[in-house]
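Predict structure. Chain length: 101.
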Amino acid sequence: MIASKEEQLMESLRSVIDPEIGLNIVELGLVRNLELDSESEAAKITMILTTPFCPYGPQLIDQVRIVGNQVIPAGVQVELGTELWDPSMMEEGAGGDWGLF
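Prediction complete.
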């Protein structure tokens, strides 16, 4: 079965690692929404940061854009959501090595 563009994009985002925590942004639950425009074939990603003033925020956003553009040639727009992150947003089992669960 061939993965959809959304699945390919989400899988590619696993290569974006939060340098402070050492987990990828998908595991951390930082990707809150992903929309693919069927007409333009561009994508819009809404993500949050682990803290509102994350020192790596600009770097993470740039990495998401770069990685996303490799999967979605029509372009990826990255928006920061206002939702506050908490460990319950992490994928199941992702916090074990981090000592959270």
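Summary: The chain has two helices and three strands.
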